[in-house]
Amino acid sequence: MSASLKVSNSSKFPVSEFILLGFPGIHSWQHWLSLPLALLYLSALGANTLILLIIWQNASLQQPMYLFLGILSVVDMGLATTITLKNLAIFWFDAKVISLPECFAQIYAIHFFVGMESGIFLCMVFDRYVAICHPLRYPSVVTSSLILKANLFMVLRNGLFVIPVPVLAAQHDYCSRNEIEHCLCSNLGVTFVLAWLGMGSDLSLIILSYILILYSVLRLNSVEAAAKALSTCSSHLTLILFFYTIVVVISVTHLTEMRATLIPVLLNVLHNIIPPSLNPIVYALQTKELRAAFQKVLFRLHL
């Protein structure tokens, strides 16, 4: 999710490319932000690659919850790469120019990966719902076949659902100055309703699932069993709260018609780079099995 393509109307000529100026108001020293962005990007690539390797090498981790986490890692790396490489090119090489086809491709990629992340969160909460509310049926319900079908559905849903976003954006006649006060290429005015139709439905189902999970947990007689059941959801809930809170903040700035200022633009960029870096760390710290696998890997590297 990112700010709208806004260009001033001081002159009229056909636009064949845009110039991404970067962060509004700090053009003279924005290149210094490239260091934390590069570190976050390398962290996202390293941590998510490590997650994939650990899940692949440990048979005990090849369970639905961790398989969904592995798929989330792939999506996170795709989202971080789509955003960060262009940002670093702007800051390091002054490569601010982006052609219209590249711009519309970036629009499509950003919304596809964000939609996929939302969809994977929904799949993960469904996994927790079945495990906690219907534990005896879990092995027969959450199967490898279901995981494959769920992910294929999410790919098709987001792949087809976001096609109107770049298509509608391409229908506009861009005949004015082609400078954009942003690091990303997107048109939030076109995408706002479409994005919330997809992610809004995901969020509604996630909230409903957690209500049912909480109701089921409160009916348990053992406090220890209830605490153990909720602990399996803690990492997932942390990531969901962070992901959707930033989405809501960005949406509010759009609804209030806030102009392109530093804070909304910075939030747009960070929303697409921090979650890919944060997701594997949160799961590694809060999931006992994954934490143990991480410690083994670090111990081997230390030796």
TrEMBL record:
Pfam families (alphabetical): 7tm_4 (PF13853)
Instruction: Offer an example of a GO molecular function term for this protein.
Output: G protein-coupled receptor activity
Question: For this UniProt entry, which segments traverse the membrane?
Answer: 32-55, 67-93, 105-126, 146-169, 189-215, 236-256
Q: What is its main location?
A: membrane
Alphabetically ordered keywords of this record: Cell membrane, G-protein coupled receptor, Membrane, Olfaction, Receptor, Sensory transduction, Transducer, Transmembrane, Transmembrane helix
Q: Where in the cell is it found?
A: Cell membrane
Q: Which GO terms describe its cellular component?
A: plasma membrane
Extract the SUPFAM superfamilies matched here: Family A G protein-coupled receptor-like
Q: Please report the stretch or stretches of sequence annotated as the G-protein coupled receptors family 1 profile domain.
A: 47-283
Provide the membrane topology annotation.
Answer: Multi-pass membrane protein
Q: Which InterPro entries match?
A: GPCR_Rhodpsn, GPCR_Rhodpsn_7TM, Olfact_rcpt, OR51/52/56-like
Job of this protein = Odorant receptor.
Query: Any idea what this protein is called?
Result: Olfactory receptor family 56 subfamily B member 1
